[in-house]
């Protein structure tokens, strides 16, 4: 089932999400709906707070990005062929490497893209959809998407990394999004 994406300005996007247990109600259906919603919205990642669930879940599919790249583009990243993965109860163990800029966007903040600096690597502990534990290091584009989605479960947004002047220049666009004055090709819910 395609779920509505929560728009910028909603409180849930600023709250720290909670860990869940294996008996979380209808978890399998939620994960299926999140995948369906992410693909329908043409995203490469989605976090539970973006579908109005205050829990520590996010999904990432960077494999689809690499499938669309030519060989020359792939050489820029060390994480080809990417991943398709569910992250539950994720917690950062470390962030390493030099920061690098990449033009990011967000399903909850449509029609705004900005360069964001993030470290090259992230090491996470998490459980998968079967609640099997993992501690893993990710790099390149995959690390970038993971950091972006991880921020959602910590109540942060990519615009928080922008310089104050740039955020001030975006204020009118952000206000329009929070008021529902934006047109997208997917379902959205707006703050009341």
From TrEMBL:
Its cofactor is Fe(2+). GO terms for molecular function: metal ion binding; peptide deformylase activity. One of its GO terms (biological process) is translation. It holds the Pfam family Pep_deformylase. The active site is at residue 149. It catalyses: N-terminal N-formyl-L-methionyl-[peptide] + H2O = N-terminal L-methionyl-[peptide] + formate. It comes from the Bacteria. Keywords: Hydrolase, Iron, Metal-binding, Protein biosynthesis. The keyword Protein biosynthesis applies. Its EC number is 3.5.1.88. SUPFAM superfamilies: Peptide deformylase. Binds 1 Fe(2+) ion. The keyword Transmembrane helix does not apply. Fe cation binds at residues 106, 148, 152. Belongs to the polypeptide deformylase family. NCBIfam families: pept_deformyl (TIGR00079), PRK00150.1-3 (NF001159). Removes the formyl group from the N-terminal Met of newly synthesized proteins. Requires at least a dipeptide for an efficient rate of reaction. N-terminal L-methionine is a prerequisite for activity but the enzyme has broad specificity at other positions. This is Peptide deformylase. It comes from Dinghuibacter silviterrae.
């Amino acid at each position: 089932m395609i779920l509505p994406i929560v728009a910028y300005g909603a409180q849930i996007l600023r709250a720290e999400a909670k860990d869940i247990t294996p008996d979380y109600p209808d978890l399998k259906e939620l994960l299926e709906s999140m995948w369906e919603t992410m693909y329908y919205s043409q995203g490469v990642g989605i976090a539970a707070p973006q579908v109005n669930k205050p829990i520590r879940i996010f999904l990432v599919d960077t494999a689809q990005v690499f499938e669309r790249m030519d060989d020359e583009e792939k050489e820029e990243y060390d994480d080809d062929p990417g991943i398709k993965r569910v992250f539950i109860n994720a917690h950062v163990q470390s962030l390493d490497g030099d920061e690098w800029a990449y033009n990011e966007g967000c399903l909850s903040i449509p029609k705004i893209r900005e360069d964001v600096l993030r470290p090259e690597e992230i090491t996470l502990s998490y459980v998968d959809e079967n609640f099997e534990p993992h501690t893993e290091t990710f790099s390149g584009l995959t690390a970038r998407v993971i950091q972006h989605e991880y921020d959602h479960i910590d109540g942060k947004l990519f615009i928080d990394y922008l310089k104050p002047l740039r955020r001030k220049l975006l204020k009118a666009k952000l206000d329009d999004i929070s008021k529902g004055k934006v047109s997208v090709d997917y379902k959205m819910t707006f703050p009341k």
